[in-house]
């Protein structure tokens, strides 16, 4: 599939709001006939803590993969086979930056994400991922809030 082809991408972190976003993204994909992709970002903050703690790089990679599997498993449960899941994308870095970069590199993508994830304190101090993405996205974004 061409990276410019239309698709629905849902940014997930395993939170209730990201699971609501996955459900809406599934409905959009089904209604439009576009493929659905799941995307999650393993935050550098978690990697940094593990590096400082002296954890081996291989174990950090293992933690990243485990994080991705847990998030994708939760999202797949919500989707319950309703729509064809085309791809699972696991990125590493600052979540807002990585999502914005993904959107920039995939102009056919319509992003769906929750208004808030797990990091309420970080949101108060630095702003939410969804706010940053909406402000800088190069394509359509749907924010799901409760």
Automatic annotation (TrEMBL):
This is Universal stress protein UspA. It comes from Marinobacter similis. InterPro entries: Rossmann-like_a/b/a_fold (IPR014729), Universal_stress_UspA (IPR006015), UspA (IPR006016). Belongs to the universal stress protein A family. Transmembrane segments: none annotated. The lineage of its organism: Bacteria, Pseudomonadati, Pseudomonadota, Gammaproteobacteria, Pseudomonadales. SUPFAM superfamilies: Adenine nucleotide alpha hydrolases-like. Residues 8-144 form the UspA domain. CDD domains: USP-like (cd00293).
């Amino acid at each position: 599939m061409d990276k410019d082809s239309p698709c629905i991408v849902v940014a997930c972190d395993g939170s209730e709001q990201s699971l609501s976003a996955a459900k809406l993204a599934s409905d959009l994909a089904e209604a439009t006939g576009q493929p659905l992709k799941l995307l999650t970002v393993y935050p550098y903050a978690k990697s940094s803590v593990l590096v400082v703690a002296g954890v081996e790089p291989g174990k950090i990679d293992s933690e990243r993969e485990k994080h991705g599997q847990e998030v994708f498993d939760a999202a797949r449960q919500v989707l319950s086979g309703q729509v064809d899941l085309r791809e699972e994308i696991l990125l590493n870095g600052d979540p807002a930056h990585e999502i914005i970069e993904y959107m920039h590199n995939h102009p056919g993508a319509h992003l769906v994400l929750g208004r808030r994830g797990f990091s309420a304190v970080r949101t108060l101090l630095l702003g939410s991922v969804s706010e940053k993405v909406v402000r800088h996205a190069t394509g359509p974004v749907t924010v799901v809030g409760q």
